[in-house]
């Protein structure tokens, strides 16, 4: 039995020291010691623990559209759309396949002719099973496009204006931004040949004739 209040206080202090929990590293890399059965005032906790940051609404700058997402006027002519979307980078493998098809089949054609060639590739991809269901699948279908060799896309001069125009046309076709006289065409050939297809002729644009 303890003989004096002072002795009792010394014993209590010793017991408290022996029951201190292990140190924890806080957000400022300083040890925070946890004492059992002791409640820390809220004002003290607020000085030690990090407070939640205010969540700010996105600014108008954060919500600004990227170049390809800029508003497109429904009345814009084809040349204006091409100027808006012209780029050396199609942005995806599928759009690259579509642009490559447009480039090699119609790079020297007027814009309307390039649009029509792009429409044929897109129409085939959307034909619900009649042709492969992707632009790349359409391009690599056996014996359909003479510029395809093996399973690789041919190289293109990406800095050339003709390639950048083909990329723009591919984006216009993919986004369905402009109607073409060959909107429902699935086949085409150069005017210099006569394959005698028993198909419905849809349009003649530039140096190609389009069929469904």
Structure description:
By secondary structure, the protein is mainly alpha-helical. The chain contains 7 helices and 5 strands; from the N terminus they run H-E-E-H-H-H-H-H-H-E-E-E. It has a domain at about 75-180: Orthogonal Bundle (Arc Repressor Mutant, subunit A). It has helices at about 5-20, 40-50, 80-85, 95-105, 110-125, 135-140, 160-175, and strands at about 25, 30, 185-190, 200-205, 210. The protein has a 3-stranded antiparallel β-sheet with strand order 3-5-4, covered by helices on one side. Helix 4 crosses helix 5. The radius of gyration is 35 Å and the shape is globular.
SSE layout and pairings?
Layout: H1 5-18, E1 24-25, E2 31-32, H2 42-48, H3 78-85, H4 93-106, H5 111-125, H6 135-140, H7 161-175, E3 187-190, E4 201-205, E5 208-211
Antiparallel strand pairs: 1-2, 3-5, 4-5
Quick overview:
The protein has 212 residues and is mainly alpha-helical.
Strand order of the largest sheet: 3-5-4
Q: Please state the average pLDDT score.
A: 76
What is the terminal-to-terminal distance? 108 Å
CATH H-level superfamily title of the domain at 75-180: Cell wall hydrolase SleB, domain 1
Keywords:
37% helix, Arc Repressor Mutant, subunit A, globular, 212 residues, mainly alpha
